[in-house]
Specification:
2 domains, single chain, 138 residues, Multidrug-efflux Transporter Regulator, Chain: A, Domain 2, 5% strand
Length: 138
Amino acid sequence: MAGFLTAGKVAGRAGVNIQTVRYYERRGLLLPDSRKDSGYRLYSEEAVQKLLFIRNAQGLGFSLAEIARLLRLRVGHKVQCGTVKKQAQARLGVVQEKIAGLRGMEKALRRLIRTCSAKATTNRCPILESLEDGRKSP
């Protein structure tokens, strides 16, 4: 069992919380390599790399389901990189949709802010009125 790391050590090296390690284990993304007689989970050094992979992929917006697929592709030697590229392109499309949605929200908020007369009372506030009746802007 020499060379193995406890869940706490793996979490520390990857810069995540131990609860994160346990969560990924429950989700099947990270499995211990063995256990001590006391029941402590033991992981190889590769677990640290896998946690970093998961964290980095999440930083790019990949869901845990998508990350699970990417992890399976990571260990496959017969799959071409184009498969990974397609997943990255799909994720980019989702990100672009979110950006477009955020830009729309920004425009609507800017329009609402322009309509506001800061000296008016809240019973005549165009921002509050628009939120009540669902309008994005007057």
